[in-house]
Amino acid sequence: MTTLTFDSLNPATGEIVGSHPKQTPDAVHEAVGRAQEAAAWWAALGHAERRRRLLDYKAVLAQHLKELAELVHQETGKPVGDATLELVLTLTHLDWAARNAQKVLGRRRVATGMIGLNLAATLEYLPLGVVAVIGPWNYPVFTPMGSIAYALAAGNAIVFKPSELTPGVGVRLAELFAESVPEHPVLQTVTGLGETGAALAADPRVKKVAFTGSTATAKRVMAACAENLTPIVAECGGKDAFIVDDDADLGAAADACLWGAMANAGQTCVGVERVYVVDAVYESFMRELSGRVSKVKAGEQYGPITMPGQVEIIKRHIDDATKAGKVITGGPGSVRAPYVDPVIVEDVPEDSPAVREETFGPTITVRRTRDAQEALSLANASSYGLGGTIFSRNARRATELARLMRSGMTAINSVISFAGVPSLPFGGIDDSGFGRIHGADGLREFARSKAIARQRFALPGMNLTSFNRGPAELERLVRLVTFLHGRRKR
Ligand code: NDP
C-alpha cells in the first residue's frame, strides 16, 4: 500500500520545502506502542544518565543550529535571524530542564508533623510514560520543545505531531535526538494533518497531551482526551495588552511595543495586540511609535503570514478597525498576501473583533486611558489571559500592576522577556488555556507525584488505625490535638 504524502511549502515563495507521509491512525498507534517500550527504558536510565543524554542532544542541536534555522526560515518564512534566536532560546530551556530535573523531581524527605511523629515520609515525581506533543507552526522549535525538553527530562517518551505547515523541522528534531539516544525511539515525530493529531490524542496509552495551538482546536483535543481521562496541557492563543504608564521611558516603550507586535509578522501567542497608553504621555508615545513604524516593512524585518487562511482573519480585523477607529499607520491596503505591512489604529471600540479576538498579525489597536488603573481594567476585560507588558519607571508600581494583570506572565520594561527565563513557568488562564510548560512547574506538569509514608516505630498507646483502638487512645488524641490546634490567637 502506498502512503499518502503532503508537502510543506515556503509561504514566501510557494516552493515545496519537503514531502512527508500523512501518517494513518494505525501508524500513529504503532508509534505509541514503540514509545511505551522506549518510555520504560528511558525512565529506568535515571536522572543522571538522562541529564547526560539531554545535554548531549543540546550540543547536537547547537552543532546543527544553522541548518535548523534555515529549515525554520523555509517552512515559516521568518527571517533566518529570528529563527536563530528561536533556536538559541530553545537550547537554554533544554539546558535548564536537563540540569534541574533531579532537583525538582527527585526523591526527598518531607516533614510529617506531630501526629505523624513515628512516620518517615518521602515525595518524588515519577514519569507518566508516553507524552503526546501537538505543536503549532509559528515557533516550530521553541514552542513544542517547551513541552518536549521538560517532558523528556522528567523521564517520559514523546510522540510529537508537528503542525502540517512545519513537519520538516519536527522530523529533524527527532532525527537529531537519535544521535544522542540511539538505543530506543524515545522521541518520535509523526507527520500528517489534523487527523494524525486526533489519532494521537485519542490513543489510551498516551498519558498526557501537551497541546499548543488555537483555543478551538484545544477544545476538540480535550473532548477526545475525555474519553480516556487523559490529562492535557493547553497552551492556546492570547490577546496580550501593553500598558504605558505616565512615567515610562517612551522611546524604549515604543521600540518594545513595535517589536512585540510586529516581529514574526505578529504570529506570536504572546505578541502585543492591544496597547493602552495613559493620557499624560499619549501624544508623545504616539510620536515615538509613528516615527519608528515607518522603518518596519513586511518582507524585510519580518516574513510573510505563514498560514494562508490567517490572512482573511487579519484582513477582517483591519477592515473593521479602520472603519471604526482612526488609522495611524497602514490600513486595508497593507494586506498584500502573503505579506501584511504594519497596521496601527487608535480609538477602536473595545467590543470590536480587532480588540476582542486574536488577530495573529502585525497589527495593534491603541487606546488612551485616564490612568494606569483604567488601562489595567481594559487589559483585564478579555476572555484570554496569556501574557502582557507594563512600561513604567516605578518598579514597585509596575510590579503591583503586573500582579493585578489577569494573565499567566507579565513583562516589565521589556516584551516577552519571561519566555527566555527557563525557571519561569509559561502558560495562560481562561481561553489561553491551562497547565504550565518551562520551569519547575513545567517539569512537574509531565510527572506524577508519588507519596510514601513509612512507619518507623509504633507509638505506644496510640494505635489509631486499628480496631483495637480504645477510648483512652482517643482521649489522648483529643488532648494532643487540643494542645496543638486548640488555642485561639486574637
Ligand atoms: P491549530 O489549533 O490550528 O493547530 C495546532 C496543532 O493541532 C497542529 O499541529 C494541528 O495539526 C493540530 N490539530 C488540528 N486539529 C486537530 C485535532 N482535531 N486533534 C489533534 N490535533 C489537531 O493552531 P495553529 O497551528 O494555527 O497555531 C496557532 C495558534 O496557536 C494561535 O492561536 C496561537 O496563539 C497559538 N499558540 C499558542 C502558544 C502558547 O504557548 N500559548 C504558542 C504558539 C501558538 P495541523 O497543523 O496538521 O492541522
Automatic annotation (TrEMBL):
Keyword Acetylation recorded: no
Aldehyde dehydrogenase domain: residues covered: 5-452
TM stretches of this protein: none
Keywords in alphabetical order: Oxidoreductase
Keyword Cytoplasm part of the UniProt annotation: no
CDD domains: ALDH_DDALDH
Alphabetical list of Pfam families matching this protein: Aldedh
Active site: E235
Family in the record: Belongs to the aldehyde dehydrogenase family.
Protein name in UniProt: Aldehyde dehydrogenase
